[in-house]
Amino acid sequence: MVLKWFRSYLEGRGYYVSLGEHKSKWTSMTCGVPQGSILAPLLFSLYMLPLSQIMRKNQIAYHSYADDTQIYLALSPNDYSPIDSLCQCIDEINSWMCQNFLQLNKEKTEVIAFGNKDEVFKVNAYLDSRGQTTKNQVRNLGVILETELSFSSHVKAVTKSAYYHLKNIARIRCFVSSQDLEKLVHAFITSRVDYCNGLLTGLHKKTIRQLQLIQNTAARILTRTRKSEHITPVRRSLHRLPVTFRIDFKVRLLVYKSLNDLGPKYIADMLNEYKPNRPLRSLGSSQLEIPRVHTKQGESAFSYYAAHSWNQLPEEIRCAKILVTFKSRLKIICLAVHLLNEHCAMSELISLYFM
């Protein structure tokens, strides 16, 4: 039915190339859509629909993006049967692509296992026996992931790129206005530090400090502050939250959006409303159930960290009616906690609350 409608859509349509006063011959369209057509994403999704059916049939979870697809599954210790389904799924995808004038790029088809070091070694050995080459780290949507999920390689890459741009910005700061300088810092530095920072929950302080030093250096360049001067007043004058608070801000914002049908469903599925067995004052206060974990790495998981961080917020913030109100109240409470950690005067907190 869709293809029949699409053929009728193409009837009588064509294109030509114009260069000044010269025009090429009118050519009728027999396939494809005009460049920039809003139908292109819809038709591409319809074209790739059988690919999702293959993954569902093999009971493989997946995320599809514009130009790539991510598939993943969970394993239990010493149970490698899901890996057989994964290998079969990859073979079926390869066959489907060959039948539909596509080709699976094996150089960009990367396989990685996450978990305990010993278990990852066993899983990699089994994958190698099935002809699947594994890697210790991969890049997914610009984020570098390692088998132990330490994000050290990702932070190192962000640090290297940020300092490269900071050096260039420092060279031209005498030739641009303060407003333009701030725009450059936001575009090349702040956006890189904040990108996917919701994944950096529970990381070691040493790793987070590398990102904090980037923010401090950017603040010094903006305000032309010397290295010997204390950075906290400088950062406060720019109304910049430290990196750890920005991570918590992003996590809580994702929770709010997910609970209010403004975020993706796969995040909302990880959050469960707290329902006590008997009537308590906490009933109806928008608190979340905190899952039980037994390791330090488990506390870094989004399902645990997000619920624990969300429950620490005052009820009036959790129950905000609209997103704008929630964001403004959340920023105020984050700044207040930061000022308390810095042992600021109570007068500053009062002025901040009524700001």
Features:
355 residues; mainly alpha; two-stranded antiparallel sheet; 8 strands; 53% helix; disordered C terminus; DNA/RNA_pol_sf; RT_dom; Reverse transcriptase domain-containing protein
What does this protein structure show overall?
The protein is mainly alpha-helical and 355 residues long. 53% of the residues lie in helices and 7% in strands. The protein is built from 16 helices and eight strands. The chain has helices at residues 2-10, 39-47, 49-57, 81-99, 117-129, 152-172, 178-194, 205-223, 231-237, 243-259, 265-268, 296-299, 302-311, 315-318, 323-341, 346-353, and strands at residues 14-15, 18-19, 22-23, 27-28, 61-64, 69-72, 137-140, 143-146. The strands form four sheets. It has a two-stranded antiparallel sheet with strand order 1-4. It has a two-stranded antiparallel ribbon with strand order 2-3. Strands 5-6 form a two-stranded antiparallel sheet. Helix 6 (152-172) packs antiparallel against helix 7 (178-194). The longest helix is centred in the middle third of the chain and has 21 residues, at 152-172. Residues 345-355 have low confidence and may be disordered. It comes from Cyprinus carpio. Pfam families: RVT_1 (PF00078). This is Reverse transcriptase domain-containing protein. Residues 1-145 form the Reverse transcriptase domain.
